[in-house]
Amino acid sequence: MSYPFVLNLIPTTYAANDDTPSSAPTILDPRKEKVLALHTTGMSRRKIIEATGETEHYVRQAIKGVRVVEKLPISPFERAVAQCYPIAIRRTGIKDYQLRAIMNECYGVEWDTEKGKYKARYTVDQLKRVRERIRERATAEGHSAIFVMDWINTIEPVESNAVITQCILNLQNAIQEALDEFMQASGVHHVEEGVDLALARKKQEFAARRYILNLAVKGFSKEPVARLQERALDQVNQLAGTPDAPGVSTPAIKLRHPEPKGSDAFLDYCEGQGWLQPDHYPEVEQAISAAGY
Fold it and tell me: Is residue 26 pLDDT above 60, yes or no?
């Protein structure tokens, strides 16, 4: 009895033109595996080169076509960098008030009852670190991060700088003219024996300039202007020995500013000062009714 010849082929290999993929695992070069691991975490190319010691050409070839795994920023620092970066690399850059608004949003704020305004929880060092990280990322990605002072007109930067420079020169000349007028009228001409007259005039001129700036420029002095004037008048009266104009002594009064609740800031303020005591409520309600509210 004859049997037909049967050829059994065991599929242990694939033909060269077979499209069936191999199930054998792909083994990466340890060098490339390390580069890819750092790349997928979002590390910049420059940082990868520093961490691995590989050449820029090798790193470029290794990460070519490999997507970066996007990680959601968790810390306030990471969130601030992530939000500020796309604004900072624009042609017009990021304004200082925009940067600080994002920092306030990420780090939070707290109400200052003494000054009556919100105070940021981030520190100067944290703000500096955010700027530095944005610059590092921009350099690594071939961009330029621009942090712009609020007074600059980003549409006409050169023109706005020229105008403010002229304003500064005009202000400097005006202050110097006022200072020269003061020194000519009230400059020290006689000093006690052993005192250097030139040094005394130099110190007087410096102090006069500071005093002029403190009173003329709002916010220049940390001391309230009214208190500074009262202190100066007190010293003047003591030196003059004027009997009918004694030195003024005004105690420092610290006002408490309650945090606005979004309803009525004026009433919140009055209540915070203790002006609306329970004993006065009937009078207040009567006044409101009489006004037709």
Answer: no
Structural domain boundaries, residue 273: 258-293
pLDDT at 266: 67
14 lies in a domain?
no
> Quick one: DSSP state of residue 76?
H
Q: Are residues 84 and 136 in the same domain?
A: yes
Q: CA separation (Å) from 158 to 43, 184, 249?
A: 36, 39, 50
Same domain, 221 and 166: yes
Q: What is the pLDDT of residues 272-282, one digit of tens each?
A: 666 666 666 67
Q: How many residues does the chain have?
A: 293
Determine the straight-line distance between the first and last CA of the chain, rounded to whole angstroms.
Answer: 119
Domain boundary among 52, 71, 90: 71
d(CA 150, CA 222): 22
> Can you tell me the distance from the alpha carbon of 232 to that of 122, in angstroms, rounded to the nearest whole number?
37
DSSP character for 25?
P
Residue 11 domain flag? no
Residue 253, SS3 per DSSP: coil
Q: Give buried/exposed letters for 26-48 (b at 16+ CB in 10 A, else e).
A: eeeeeebebbbebbeeebebeeb
Same domain, 124 and 93: yes
Tell whether the model's pLDDT for residue 109 goes beyond 70.
Answer: yes
- What are 134-151's pLDDT values in tens digits? 999 999 999 999 999 999
Q: 12 in a domain, yes or no?
A: no
What's the structural domain count of the chain?
A: 4
Contact indicator for 108, 121 with CB cutoff of 8 Å: yes
Are 176 and 202 members of one domain?
Answer: yes
Q: Which amino acid is at 252?
A: A
The answer to whether 47 and 140 are in contact (CB under 8 A) is yes
Residue ending a domain, choose from 36, 71, 106: 71
pLDDT tens column, 221-255 = 888 888 899 989 888 888 888 755 554 455 555 66
pTM (whole model) above 0.85 = no
